[in-house]
Design goal:
291 residues; alpha+beta; Arc Repressor Mutant, subunit A; 4-stranded antiparallel β-sheet; 13 helices; 7 strands; 54% helix; elongated; coiled coil
Length: 291
């Protein structure tokens, strides 16, 4: 949901006073401060309080002597105190989560830099828990694709974010600086779903992707081990190569690794090695490519 500054006035006030359930505000203080914040405009005060109450952001003691933010309101206000956790995702899943989050922000705001959105509500729409939403939003903010515009968890998309999403939409089969190809994300990655379930491709005539057998697992891992040795010996510096190697190892470590996803990363590794094919060490590895 999009918000205006007036609709967030009560949350601003709670934050300014570090209000929580265990550190509430006297209503008389709240009332005085909200009038100051709204420049003594009675209609604006009434609207701001009514809006916050309807959103379930306000809780009060019996007789309304004390007032404090609800748990949901605290999550928005004190967003920066949330500790995220993305370690359960592999690299491609992280990138896909970031794309889906930014894409949802783009759609929710109509591609406007002036619209304010709750990062928590946005994350829930794409199936992310609050801590994961925090990690994703923080990364996108660090890269200049969105910015924290108010309180702790109110965000808006930036010009760079708009350009990145529109570029991804215009070229859905091409990887962007930050995201895998959109068609790959839509067809392969299942954010927040059952990671052990068979993955279904996006067209009606497709079949489910088969798992790799143990012998294939061992063959691929042995090849990856030899590749890592060669990389260290030849002092090859390539971040994308290292990321794809980590992705393959992570996927194979799962109970039911999926061939299609592993094949995608292995093909990227192969293409990178083709770029250094003049090196005899890597030529030998390409000749023994296991897939």
């Amino acid at each position: 949901m999009r918000y205006t500054q007036l609709e967030l006035a009560v949350l601003y006030l709670f934050k300014a006073h570090n209000a929580t359930k265990t550190s509430s505000m006297a209503f008389v203080v709240f009332n005085t401060e909200i009038y100051k914040l709204c420049k003594h405009d009675k209609e604006k005060v009434e609207y701001a309080i009514r809006f916050a109450d309807e959103k379930g952001w306000i809780e009060a003691s019996s007789g309304n002597r004390y007032i404090w933010p609800s748990i949901e309101a605290e999550q928005i206000i004190y967003w920066g105190k949330t500790k995220g956790e993305l370690n359960s995702m592999d690299i491609k899943e992280k990138k896909a989560a970031r794309y889906k989050f930014l894409n949802e922000l783009y759609n929710a705001t109509g591609g406007s830099k002036n619209e304010l959105i709750s990062a928590i509500e946005l994350g829930k729409k794409i199936g992310l828990e609050n801590n994961l939403s925090h990690d994703v939003a923080q990364y996108l903010s660090d890269e200049g694709l969105l910015e924290f515009a108010a309180l702790g968890g109110i965000i808006r998309i930036t010009h760079g974010g708009i350009q990145e999403i529109e570029n991804a939409h215009e070229h859905p089969d091409i990887e962007t600086k930050y995201f895998p190809p959109v068609n790959y994300i839509n067809n392969i990655i299942n954010i927040g779903g059952n990671s052990n379930a068979p993955i279904q491709m996006g067209n009606t005539n497709s079949t489910q992707v088969s798992n790799i057998n143990n012998s294939s697992n061992e063959e691929i891992l042995k090849w990856i081990e030899n590749l890592e040795k060669a990389i260290n010996e030849e002092q090859l510096k390539n971040q994308e190569l290292n990321e794809e190697i980590d992705t393959v190892k992570f996927l194979i470590s799962k109970k039911n690794p999926k061939m299609t996803v592993i094949q995608e990363s292995m093909n990227i590794i192969k293409n990178i090695l083709l770029g250094v094919a003049s090196n005899t060490v890597f030529q030998g590895l390409l000749a023994a490519f296991p897939m």
